[in-house]
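Thought: the user wants the 3D structure for the chain below. I'll pass the sequence to the structure tool as-is, report back what it returns, then summarize two notable features.
Action: structure_tool
Action Input:
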Amino acid sequence: MLADIAAAGYAGAPIGPKPATSAAERLSMWQRYGLQPAPGYIGADFWDPKKYSAIIAQTTSYAQFAREVGLTTCYVAANVDNTKVVNGRTRMQAAGHATTADGLTDAEWRQFIETTTEVATIMQAHGVTAAFHNHVGSFVETRAELDLLMAAVSPALLALGPDTGHMAWAGDDPVAMVNTYATRIVTMHLKDVNAAAAAKARADRTDYRGAERYGVWTELGQGSVDFPAIFATLSRARFAGWLIVETDVTQLATPLESALQSRAYLRTLDK
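Observation:
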């Protein structure tokens, strides 16, 4: 995978710890392919008080790893969830058509905010900025849910590392989201969405995997996300972080072809 990423012309790739492997060994693998370490990802059940201690331990371990490999940013996201909420369905089932009835209870939101605040505080103590990441199928999928969290946790602690495609699939406008939070965004996942597939999945009320089978994901520049508008906003905000290309399920023959096509599209925006 690293060889394909390098061959496609990317500067780096997300990195994370691996059991029984030192940070130096992990970093050396990236260096072998001429790749820089890019921000990795922590997903957790921030709303569950029974998971609090484990989340804090995971955060501390990851922050130490990030510091050792020279990272200053980490994506933080709610786990994609299959737990039934009060209305009887899971967020995976509600993917792309979630309502307020699919959300957390007030008590769960308070726990979510408390845990996220502590996670961001621990990371900051290690010189790492926590960047929250919106994700379809999780309890922070919609723009309303993201706004609630961003308002609840201090910008001095919690930055934003959004996903353009997940915001579009959720039915919200990624350009408007970037306009609102441009100065708080420190890294971003670039993902494109086939709007017709997303609309069909929403109308059919299909679940997360069903939407993927409809072809909701596509290579950059082939979908509905307005990347030129997003980049113009980031430029005005003097953004200088990592932009990470993702196509969760390619419509092309191989991952390498997908990576090459998205990279070629980005080069057209450099002109």
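Final Answer: Structure generated. The domain at 42-58+78-268 is CATH 3.20.20.150 (TIM Barrel). Residues 145 and 153 are 13 Å apart (CA to CA).
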